[in-house]
Amino acid sequence: MLAKAGSKRISEGYDDSPATHYSWDSTVNNHAKLKVGDVIALWDATELLGLSVIEDIETGQGEKETPYCLACGKADVALRKRKLPRFVCWNQECKHESDEVGWKRKEITTYRSRHEAGWIDARGTLTAAEVRALCVQRASQNSLRELRWHDFHHALTHGGVPLPLRVIDTTQKAITDGHGTATIRVRRGQPAFRKHLLEVFGEVCVFSGPAPVQALEAAHLYSYAANGKHHKGGGLLLRRDLHRLFDLGLIAVNPRTKTLHLAGELKAYPDYARLDGAKLAVPVTPDHVKWMAKHWEMHRANVPDDLMPRQVGPSHVAIV
Ligand SMILES: [Zn+2]
Question: How far is the CA of 103 from the centre of ligand 1 (A)?
Fold first, then answer.
């Protein structure tokens, strides 16, 4: 499902933060169609912002002032951005235009999705027009619209910026199965935590070695369990670009050999290609290895057996 985000919605009182949650209510068409495990893609007036998988939907009750058409009495009234009169009725038999509308107080159901675990930033991949063309109903005005998933997926995998859609697949599996592989993400840590890591490790990126302090970020490994709670894992100092690639699974650490494993698409870049198979630049704790193993399990389920770690938990991991 495609959901419209943006500053206009915030001014209308919706509490939006595209990377973590989305709010809507029963005045919106398709409001009851979204369910846990569905893919949600968010866009604004300009472009696709990102996509994720719905982990949870909180519902509540509320009241809202909603406009109705003074000519036909229906609630299909839209506020126009550029043209006057300000309101137009969407009822095809009415199409009344006016600066005046009626307002009535209405009982509504409120919805709020949580989708932080699988969020992939997709800015720069598809324009708003391209996204609209991938909806089931292109001309729709609805803020929640059904996407033609296969075409959307195709556009994302064959666009100029390939996205790590495996994050979506594994998160969806973890949510719908309710068990098995957890979704592991890497988030940026607070300044105090970064300072602590700099004291412990020095100005060294755990993947690439010595690096200027300005380029180093504190990275937290997180696991999103089926119940939606997340637990803080081991902290690592990572160069900013490597942090992002690690979060997206394009770089993983083989927990058995403690060496880096790069996704094929990164090997086209000499600066990254030389990291493939490299040992970690600093000693890590068993706690770190445990988290790296979970991350590996999420992103490297299909690598050849000789690269598989030997003890990483669930029985569905092939062990030779
Ligand atoms: Zn009307």
Answer: 13
Q: Cα(80) to centroid of ligand 1, in Å?
A: 15
Residues 124 and 185 grouped into a single domain: no
Structure token digits, residue 196: 């602590």
What length does the chain have? Answer: 320
Residue 317 forms part of a structural domain: no
Q: How far is the CA of 104 from the centre of ligand 1 (A)?
A: 15
Residues 216 and 86 in one domain: no
* pLDDT digits 0-9 by tens, 56-99: 999 999 998 888 999 999 888 888 878 889 899 988 899 999 99
Same domain, 132 and 201: no
**26 C-alpha to ligand 1 centroid (Å):** 20
124: left (phi over 0), alpha (psi -120 to 50) or beta: left
- 95 CA → ligand 1 middle, Å: 6
If you measure from the C-alpha of residue 139 to the centroid of ligand 1, how many angstroms do you get, rounded to a whole number? 20
Residue 186 near residue 220 (C-beta atoms within 8 A): yes
Cα of 68 vs centre of ligand 1, distance in Å, is: 8
Structural domain boundaries, residue 294: 179-307
Domain boundary among 125, 157, 189: 157
pLDDT tens digits, 125-144: 999 999 999 999 877 778 89
For residue 47, give every residue at least 6 positions away whose Cβ sits within 8 Å of its Cβ, in sequence order, or none.
123, 124, 125, 126, 127, 128, 131
Give 10's pLDDT tier (boundaries 50, 70, 90). Answer: low
Question: Has residue 109 got a pLDDT over 70?
Answer: yes
Q: Do both 50 and 101 map to the same domain?
A: yes
| pLDDT at position 170 | 82
Total domains in the chain come to: 2
Percent of the chain at pLDDT above 90?
Answer: 48
- 239 and 297 fall within a common domain: yes
Count other C-beta atoms under 10 Å from residue 242's C-beta: 24
CA of 30 to the centre of ligand 1 (A): 21
